[in-house]
Design a protein that fits this description.
The complex is a heterodimer of chains A (284) and B (328). Chain A has 284 residues and is mainly alpha-helical. Chain A contains eleven helices and two strands, in the order ααααββααααααα. In chain A, β1 and β2 form a beta hairpin. The two termini of chain B are 15 Å apart. Classes of the chains: A mainly alpha (284), B mainly alpha (328).
Chain lengths: 284, 328
Amino acid sequence: MEIAVSVIIDTALITLTLALAAFGLAIIYGLIGVINMGHGAMLTLGAYFTWAGMGIGIPFVLSVILGGLIVGFIGMILEHLIIRHYYDNPFDTLLLTWAFFLVTTELIKIFFGSDFRTVTNPFPGFIDIGFYKIPTYRTAISILTAIFISFTGFVFFKTTTGIKIRAMIQNQEVASLLGLNISLTYKLVFSFGCFMAGLAGGLVAPMVSVSPYMGDMYLVRSFFVVIVGGIGQILSGTIAGSFVIGGLETIVALFSDQVIAQVAVFLVAIIILRVRPQGIFSGK
Amino acid sequence: MANSKIIKNITGENKAALIIFILMGLLPIFVSGYIIFILPQYMLFGLLAVSLCILWGYSGIISFGQAAFFAIGAYTMGIVIREGGAINTAYIGIVCGALLSGIVALIVGYFLFSVKVRSTYFVLATLALSIIVEQLAKSQKDITGGWNGLFVDRITLTVGPFIEYSLFNDIPMYYFVFFITLLSFILIKWLMASKFGKILIGIRENEDRISALGYDTSFYKTMIFAISGLLAGLAGTIYGTHAGFVDPSLARVLFSTEVIVWVAIGGRNSLIGSLAGGILVASLSNYLNSVTPEYWQLIIGIIFIVVIILFRGGLAGGVEKTYEKFFR
């Protein structure tokens, strides 16, 4: 029983952390159909900005928010200069965002160096529930992720902005005939996705070693989260996908080692991709 | 009219191929030393680029997993040579490495194309394939040597009971790789000019129409992916014995990406452009890496962006345009 509870708690924490990392990608892919291969680099950038912010004495929370905002701004510039010209060609946006990843990774190496950096954990303790100690920081992150996703859900389904965005996804031409500024909406969605990626990078930074390649693993996992969960199912899909990918990895890792777990998860993800390309929980 | 123009272009590409191969064939007469040692490696990278070109340029499929096939080939070669064998490990290594890569590609291709998985999803699946191969190479220490990699001896080819051709020295190695590159290039060129290649171009242009004409497009896509894997694996086996060493970084996603950069710069629609792209960009990378280790990847990344935005035809497209401008 106690083992079961601790596994459930672990799985919940991993699911929500993964959902946080994948959320920016899910927004961009789900709403405007761009495969943002630069997602991992944006996470890394967010982590480095947080590290740099704390280095000059800015408190952790503020550093994370600032980092996210800067990454969001970089995303907006990227969208304005390059991405917006290629919305009708998914392969080109894929390659161009991948090129963004390559260039950004090199710039990170030049400006911040290739060494591992550590961001001090702002809540280092544990929450003791008797038989199991839950790391405080991870709990905080998980709650925060739940809040982010609920808030986005609220904006998406209950506000005028959300209705406009949903109208745009359903029928671009009619939405623009009704006076919706499509190009501005695309720009805002893309920037918001990048902002979320930067924010996620800053938030996971205390749990990992910050290095120029830290985003790589998140990139591929995030993609599988989005695909497994179902594209366009931004809220429930992201959580469901994270649960499958993260939960599976935790469970397989219990019986074998971490590497085998990762390989198994990727294999399962490829199989899901084939069997249910619309996502496992999607109704269609 | 349009038809005659295409024929002229093809012969133009053949001329370029002829010039490049003659130059490479005669090079050992004029230079020696490091260039002759290292150039075979770049020719193999060129072949790897061709293996992507037939996917990307001809069939409209992007693969982020070419490095995985290359690594499978190289590791197979290393393992076959280490284990030894009764007959001739050199041939067994080459054949097994290429076949194994081809079979993996065939399985992955069949698995995904037979249900018409979206082409963007296919990219992600190949990305995962790269990571899976890299992780397996790192973790299966008993078979692959793990992080430390695997040392591979240079092979000796035998023809009949008496003739032996050792690839231990650079010149024999150079001509062996040159011969393999030339042969593979001609075969691929022939294949792409055949009906098979034309159907692939049709699939790239308009898959629905080709399908409506009664062709099983999944079959063609699966086959070209298998052939691409076979070619990448073949290049990998010889890379293994040439470099003398294989390690998990061969399967890295970043290496797969480099292949994409070579092909984009060389010209994704041109076989000889891709081959030249592989050879030139890889040697340029090597040179820049020794001059400015910090900035070379940055420079390559920026060139990549510029090529995708401004010069979709790459080097081959540029040469063709210049040629038409001044000589027609």
